[in-house]
Amino acid sequence: MSVIKVNKLLDELNKMFPDIKSDLNYSNTFELLIAVVLSAQTTDQRVNSVTRKLFSRFPDPYRLANARQMEVEETIASLGLFRTKAENIIALSKRLVSTYKNEVPDNLEDLLTLPGVGRKTANVVLSEGFGKPAIAVDTHVSRVSKRLGLTKSDNPDKIELDLQEYFPKDKWGKAHLLLVHFGRYHCKAQNPQCSTCPFNEECLYYKQNLT
What we know:
Blueprint: H1 6-16, H2 29-38, H3 44-57, H4 61-65, H5 69-75, H6 82-99, H7 108-111, H8 119-130, H9 139-147, H10 156-166, H11 172-185, H12 204-209
């Protein structure tokens, strides 16, 4: 486990990102769920560029459930894997209508039954949409966690467990956002900004590559 004190990590990241929030645009849990599903293997900025039109045409599960796939594909065509994503968001909307009374479920087990929804997506919805303690592990969180010694694993489920042990439960949601932004804008996969990083003394990547 990392030698970084949890308070130091959170304090420094809060200084770097004082007004942190999701980069995805949404106004309710349904829009959040759809946006996160669409965000796989693409940028949040690109997702935001299509969801305004998507949500104006299909603003709730009922209308998206009854949409023609070609209409949805045309709306999100600038995204990678748009055909699969269109199929998934229509199918998950049908399940929301038929099983969950047009509402997004607020627990992990039910969220994971929705087409196109994996553990990362479910945890984002739980944390950001419902304010429940959850840590979503994406590529940014995985990379940062390994570099800083918060985990030794490549398995997202094990990384999630390691982070749950490291951070206080009431900080899980905030910690997820901080790690995502740190990995996205500072501790990047290529050319990380090590010269201005407050964690050089503890960072395994820095020690192995730059000292």
